Amino acid sequence: MARQMNADGSDGIEDRGVDAFELNTSIANLRDLLASDLSAYDAVYLGDIYCRLYEANFLERPEDLREGLRILRDQGKRAYLTTYAAPRNDFLPRVRKMLEVAAGAGAQAVEVHNLGILKIAHEEVPGLPIHVGGFANVYTDAGVDVLRGFGAVRFTPNYELSLDEIREILATSGAAMELLVHGKMPLGISDYCFLLEYEEKWGIKCPDLCQKDLFLKQGDWAMKTVGKGILSGKDVCMLEHLPLLLADGHRHFRIETVSETPAYRREVGAVYREALRRAAEEPFRQEERWWDVVRAHARIGVCNGFYFGKSGMDYAGIRPDAAGSLLTISPSAG
Amino acid sequence: MATLLAPAGSPEAVQAALDAGADAVYVGLKGWSRGGARGELTWEELVASQRRAATAGRELQVALNIIPKPPERARLFERVPPLLDLGIRTLIVNDIGILAMLRGRFPALHLTASIGCGAQTIADVGLFRDLGAHAVVLPGVVGPEEVGEMGTVPGIALEVMIHMVEEFVLLGKCWMPSHIHLKPSPLPTDPQGFALPEGAERGLRQTGSMKRGGVGACFKICQQPWELFQGDRRMDRRLLPSRQISRAAEVGAYVAAGADVLKLQGRSLPPELLGPLVRRYRNALDGRMGDAGTANRAAELPAAWTVVGR
Questions:
Q1: Cβ–Cβ contact B138 with A under 8 A
Q2: Which terminus in chain B has less CB density within 10 A, N or C?
Q3: Cross-chain residue pair B173–A142, CB shorter than 8 Å
């Protein structure tokens, strides 16, 4: 099977210096890809991990996937395929097909959230580097060791882990980690789309339903729903902590935008691109306009508590006022 | 022939499950199981329960299904030799790293990949087989036809949780509670009397983390009513969907499909409810469904049989 090898190393970055990093994001379908300015990003994951019925999901359309990979390649981006987070047996033939398409069309890695798909990818497309996604439940160095045995080269630790815990895994394993630095954090996945109950009542059919701006709220708690997926209502925001992430040795950063608009993708990406370049400098000089962008797109507020050993919806830092977060804690308290 | 694996959260529940015909019973050891403190046994209770099970010719399994941090992991492994000495052969674990390490260190153990490991496909089953699991637990949403496909994977037993609550979010794929409230709390005092090394911390139970060990206090976020908004417009007030799965009527189909173990959820159930529940499935498994013809109608189950704390 022909496949374009990952030209700059299995984890995507050959240069380990602080000025070398990968900023990536995610896009569900060809329409969104064509509408997105990706100049801020080094790499893109293609596909929606939650639902087979998501509109024109790359994971269901071989021709769209080939075209998406070509577009990214032409733009000089690293092109990754993602995969379903909670498959059933009847998903697997399509998963196999898309892995074959991705490998043949020059994808430079596949992201897996499900252990069975990890096994399939490892055995059936052995040349394709594997990134382990956040739903795969990487909690410890022991988990990393196991997954490496199945060909994994990059790991998104479970979102609950603190930076201290991630630091321990990194120190023990030396594994390349990918961290969510901005965007709505995946909080859960279901076999069932409750939004389908509203098709008649609202007069909106699948697959348009889950693309509405839908939030579940309970007092000051909020979560975004995309049908089978539950995301944080607040946006994870690690903008002011980027120097810490670089100092810890992290080089792969994700802005989660699969359920966001092209404007979000472009504007937030540009902020982080600039901030990451500047984060290696001493002192780290933040621009007020960065926070204007964050505030404009994070309607519910920002959070990053998990990274500091707190509840996920908390915010650690000095800038929560800029984004409407109600909870503030000192990062050092974590 | 498939076996019936029942839950128990107290010595009295162990006895009730055995009396009702369970082939095996699973329990949690205080501080080390995902069920939370409410449904865990002390070491002394575990010893007594193992004695009862062995006397009855049945098996007692132990859930060590939290995910300890590396410093605490060694202490978890210290628990294993005493368990083996006691006659415990099967441990239920929740993390691939822990599973692989136990496999390497204790070849005599039978290891079960818990429902929290999230296996739902034939490929998942194959992976856990490759890791050395003796059995893998599948949720009751997986039907007999799917189990039949998975049964083609050799070298691993299939356990189906045919009586369970299906929450909206899949087990092992939920961190809503900890997003809202993560509250690490000290692990209980060591149940086996192991002395801590000088200066060592007791370790933390990650209360609020479903996966790591706080399911007993997951705050039931998903069971609270939510307001559904589109933009700023309130569209509905609702619960996230969940249901009691009770597939007693399909026991025969699961067995024919190759299920090796039929597992019941409910370590929080008191003995007086657990006994009849186990008996219902014992009868179903033994083919005596004639006098329990309503077994397939989950709506007729006593409300208290709905598992509230796993």
A1: no
A2: N
A3: no
Verdict on whether the full-model pTM lies above 0.80: yes
- The single residue listed with the structure tokens 């902590």 is A241
Question: H or E segment at B277?
Answer: helix B271-285
With a cut of 0.90, is the ipTM above it? yes
A7 within a domain of the structure (yes/no) = no
In the predicted model, is pLDDT for residue B139 greater than 60? yes
At residue A13, what are phi and psi to the nearest 5 degrees? -135, 120
A234-249 core/surface letters (b: 16 or more CB in 10 A; e: else): bbbbbbbbbbebbebe
Q: How far is B236 from chain A (nearest CA, A)?
A: 10
Nearest beta carbon to residue B169 from set A116, A190, A217: A190
The number of angstroms, rounded, from the C-alpha of A253 to the middle of its chain's C-alpha atoms is 8
A118 contacts B118 by C-beta, under 8 angstroms: no
Is residue B201 pLDDT above 60, yes or no?
no
Report the distance separating Cα B208 and Cα B220, nearest Å.
Answer: 10
3-class secondary structure, B161: strand
Fold of B3-169+243-305: TIM Barrel (3.20.20)
Domain count, chain A: 1
- Is residue A321 situated within a structural domain? no
pLDDT of residue A80: 98
CA distance B178 to chain A (A): 6
Question: What tokens appear for B179 in the block?
Answer: 């997003």
Contact between A118 and B127 using a beta-carbon 8 Å cutoff: yes
Report residue B256 as tokens: 């024919």
Which contiguous run of DSSP H or E holds residue B281?
A: helix B271-285
Q: Are A227 and A50 in contact (CB under 8 A)?
A: yes
pLDDT for A321 = 58
pLDDT at B304 over 70: no
| Interchain CB distance below 8 Å, B98 and A142 | yes
Which is more confidently placed, B156 or A333?
Answer: B156
